[in-house]
Amino acid sequence: MEDGNRGENTKKMLELCGSDYESLHDLPIQRVEIAMETLANRYALTKRESEMVTLIAAFGFSNREIAEHCTISEKTVKIHLANAMNKMSVKSMRKLLSLLFRYVLNASP
């Protein structure tokens, strides 16, 4: 992925789920996107699994909020998150977010 496309790809991903992209202006979105891309590649996460993790990490969404914004069932959200957590060998959301945070700290914008 080219550097110029990173912000646009994140914007498109969040818009697909009905999120307000402008509310992210204070976040280091480039670092989050680089970290998510690295994490997704390393653990072979699907696009949808990456979206679920991003919505939790960037917005603090609950499973129900993700389901509402992405117009999918809450059970489907849980399945995507469980699959991502299994691939990453983490047993809790805290561990998942901790792992993502380490990738964010190492990401270069």
Structural summary, described in words:
With 109 residues, the protein is mainly alpha-helical. The protein has a domain at 52-109: Winged helix-like DNA-binding domain superfamily/Winged helix DNA-binding domain (Arc Repressor Mutant, subunit A, Orthogonal Bundle), CATH 1.10.10. 72% of the residues lie in helices and 0% in strands. The chain has helices at residues 3-16, 29-43, 47-59, 63-70, 74-88, 93-106. The radius of gyration is 13 Å and the shape is globular. The two termini are 13 Å apart. Pfam families: GerE.
Fill in the keyword field for this structure.
0% strand; 109 residues; globular; 72% helix; Arc Repressor Mutant, subunit A; mainly alpha
Gross geometry: globular
CATH class of the domain at 52-109: Mainly Alpha
Quick one: biggest sheet?
Answer: none
What is the string of SSEs from the N terminus onward?
HHHHHH
User: What would you call the structural class?
Assistant: mainly alpha
Roughly what percent helix?
over 70%
The helix tally amounts to 6
The H-level CATH homologous superfamily of the domain at 52-109, spelled out, is Winged helix-like DNA-binding domain superfamily/Winged helix DNA-binding domain
Number of strands: 0
Low-pLDDT windows of residues? none
Q: How much β-strand is present in the residues?
A: under 5%
**CATH architectural grouping of the domain at 52-109:** Orthogonal Bundle
What value does the Rg take, in angstroms?
13 Å
Mean pLDDT: 81
- The oligomeric status of these chains comes to single chain
CATH topology of the domain at 52-109: Arc Repressor Mutant, subunit A
Q: How many angstroms separate the termini?
A: 13 Å
Protein name: Tetrathionate response regulatory protein TtrR
Keywords: DNA-binding, Transcription, Transcription regulation
Domain HTH luxR-type: 38-104
Pfam families: GerE
